Amino acid sequence: MSNWLLPENLSDILPAEARRIEELRRDLLDLYRTYGFELVAPPMVEYLDSLMLANDEALRLRTCKLVDQLSGLTMGVRADMTLQVSRIDAHLLNREGVTRLCYCGPVIHARPSGLLSDRELLQIGAEIFGHAGVEADIESIRLAMESVRRAGVREARLDLNHPGVGRALVDDDPALAEFADEIYDLLSAKDVPGIEELLGECGARPDSVAALRTLVTLYGDAGVVERAAQRLPPLPAVREALDQLARLCTALPGEALAIDLADMGGSYGYHSGVVFSIYAKGWHDALVRGGRYDGIGRKFGRARPATGFSLDLRKLSSGLPEAQPARAVRAPWGTDAALAEAVGGLRAQGIIVIQVPGGQAHPLDEFRVDRELVSEGGAWVLKDL
Question: What is the pTM of this model?
Answer without folding.
Answer: 0.89
